[in-house]
Amino acid sequence: METIKKIKEAFGNASDLIIRDFQIGECTIYLVQNEVLCNSSFINEYILDRLTNLSLTKENEEFLLYNFLPDNSVIKVKDLDQMIDFVCKGFALLIYEEEKGIAIEAKASLDRGIGEANSESTIRGSKDAFNENFNTNLGLIRRRLRCEHCFMETLFLGKESRVKTGILYMNDIALKENVETVKKKLERINVDGVFDSGSLKRYLEEKHNFLFPTVLATERPDRAAQALLEGKIVIITDNSPFALITPTFFVDYLHSPDDYYQRSFHISFLRIIRLLAFLIAIFTPALYIALTTHNQDMLPFDLLLNFAAQRESVPFSALTEALFMSISFEILRESDIRKPASMGSAVSILGGLILGDAAVSAGIISPIMIIVISISAISGLAFTSQEMISSLRWLRFIMMFLAMFFGIFGIFWGAIFLLASLTTTTTLNLPYFAPISPLVKEELGDSLIKSKNKKIRKRNPLLTKNKVREREREKK
Description:
The chain is α+β, with helices and mostly antiparallel strands. It has helices spanning 2-10, 40-51, 61-67, 80-88, 134-142, 176-187, 201-204, 221-229, 264-293, 301-310, 318-338, 346-361, 367-380, 386-406, 408-424, 470-475; strands at 17-24, 27-34, 74-77, 91-97, 100-105, 150-157, 163-170, 216-218, 233-237, 243-246, 426-427, 430-431. Strands 1-2-4-5-3 form a five-stranded antiparallel beta sheet, sandwiched between helices. Strands 6-7-9-10-8 form a five-stranded antiparallel beta sheet, sandwiched between helices. A two-stranded antiparallel sheet has the order 11-12. Helix 5 (134-142) crosses helix 8 (221-229) and helix 9 packs parallel to helix 14.
């Protein structure tokens, strides 16, 4: 059969491509499958077993094959390109005529089970996390949103990878223009392969937004479900354990999924702590450099003498010290992330304690600089988003250079630059600094200070036209 020859040529006679022919009744049936993508037991026990019991003729072969094979994903195929596409997706292909056949889903289970989130640890929330299976991830979200309003549109991205990507949104909540904007951005992707949801982020973010993350990656299905109820859009990708949430605002990075499982008073305190950590991570080294280099008159005399005594034997400037310690910490953090788990905390202990103490003893680094950089670095780790941590790193370096050359005046201009960046950044053409600028009264109860749940009766009007929550409707 000419079709079989073309399929063999398309796959280059790959060794994992299995082609069998069967004579059943008056018809010759060809079975085409990819050995590593298909479940051989399912094909043998359910497809072939029933196939051999059919009495096929030229007149009834299409009817019988389509109606009597045991699978809910039986699809008629009528051209060669479709056949090749289904074989690549893990379908078993039954060809009964030239370029005519049916595709039966027979995918092998190649994914790991549902585990706990590694990047977003939870104290009181659910413990399940996304994995690399598209249907599993979709099921974890639908298990939390058991309604007909959770819509999904499917795209296949990458010319060679053709990875399945789902755009999820609440049809009765999310703004249609936001959904269309996300869909158009994804449809414009023209690359050979898409292997993880992380590679989609740069296509969803605005080109001029280089400083702050505007697309949030999460491993937790409860966080994705909560975002859908707020009118946001969730993107899940096959082979990726992370879902993308867009649009996200600056205040979203001060929130944690656990916030919704605790009392409002405790949540507000934790969010204020995270905001302080944000400011400490950026400004602490810069303030120390400015006060010890340009603005010594702003320090109490006793404290100034203490700093001078500690730096007496240090041959480097405060900026050089800060850069050395910051880069050393980043190297230490990267090695700690990449090292095998079996090594335990040996690298952290060696780098954090022994090398730090040795640097102070050798007179290369002053003790106060180790304290300043440690406080700044630890404060930056209060966020779960790696993109936000990277943004804090760059902002810290920018402020340090401004402080070295211009002192407190440089930090002042740096703070203005930071505030201007926050207020001019956009996410899906929406203001990133909302609900603070512009002021969105409906969202203030769940921004920095968390109000009681019964007082949060309105949704963010920037994300939805369906502003009233169901609780208030039922009450009315």
